[in-house]
Structure prediction request, 484 residues.
Amino acid sequence: MKYSIIFIIFIFMISACSLAPEYKAPKVEVPEVFKEESNDTADDQYLWQPVESLEKIDRGQWWKIFNQADLNALEKQAIESNQSLKVIAARVEQSRDIARANKGGFLPDIDFGGNVVRSKPSAPSLAAFGAPANTPTNPYTLYNSQASISYEADIFGRVRDTYKASVLDAEAQSSLYQSALLSLQADVAQNYFSIRALDSERKLLRNTVKIRSEAARIMQRKFKEGDAGEQDQARTQSELASVEADLIAVIRQRTNLEHALAVLLGKIPSNFVFAEAPLEDMMPVAIPAGLPSDLLKRRPDVLAAIDAMRAANSRIGVAKTAYFPSITLTASGGFQSNSLSDIFNWSGRTWALGQVAGNALSLPIFHGGRDYANVKAAKSAFDEAVANYREQVLIAFREVEDSLVDQRLLAKQSVKEDRAATTASRTTDLAKKRYHEGETDYFEVVDSERISLAAERSAVQIRGQRFITTVSLIRALGGGWGNL
Prediction:
């Protein structure tokens, strides 16, 4: 008994070593500055100046920088009701529960049970204990009530590394949830601005339909009175139908986006209506990108990849423990009696410490190469996690650079397109004046109107795209901006 206790104490003392290799974060190349920021010209500097109002906004609610109450309400609904987000939230809880279950490996298992055995020993079996041959035997009933304790000594860190890996898995799932949450918020914002840009385009087309409907009506009257040719009358009808078709196409796009937004909000599309709200004179907000190194600390998908690497590293240690012996400590105690009423009498007590000593120590000898293959598989899983991490870093920097160049060039393009729209509108006015004065035919008016409408639509589309690109940059930065 004394030696058994000493052995148990010794096992506890040497437990908790680990066979997992020392984790070393893989090196990745991080630029000192983003290329788009370093290549800014003097004309573009206004794009990257920090905006004081941004520092007053909680970066967890980054969409508030746009100062749109209806967008704020949509984001709140999406966070509360989006079903895809609920799926990932359930995965997070599942991974945390798995970690809690693995934590139980640090503690002994305690079980309690009882049974009833009806038995009749044979004469030869009694003779083995010195009873006379042919001793008569009678059946008897034996009642057992017993508690047992078993504990796997974590000598080589299998339990510890398994628990550590499951904790890291849970942290990775939590980061993936944050990544999904950010994507959801960005999708809501981008759908919102896409719809509002289409509303601006729809408003423009509706006004154009009214103008061309009036022009077609006037031309029809002139044609009947003989003051205009059939070709001019047909052209006005054709241009009107063309704009009406464009309007229908925009309404279709808008309806599809409205349905998509409804799903993001966890609503049935049939029951969701988003009121028309053109962008009007609203302008995008300039987002400073900050330092490239901050990106690796802020992007939740990058953080998830780091946790996945660390978990894979711990599982190498778990796989290696198969090469080494395992020791399970057991103890049991309880009562036995041939009478149920006397089962808890002190004289009927029974106990055992390490009563299955022959099976308590398990030493691997030959497993057909399975253990070696499992270790190699664990190492390959770690290599996969490292490659995935590096890929996520590359994707992160690409997305930021793409968003930065889009933000810079769309701003310049917007200035040019606004100028083109203004000039085209002026040209249309001059063409109409020349037509009414008889200095040109109606074809010049139609062509100038078509060019003017195309320029105005393009200007509206670019303005909407600038909002979408601003959201893309925020998403690429991990939901924040500037230095942490």
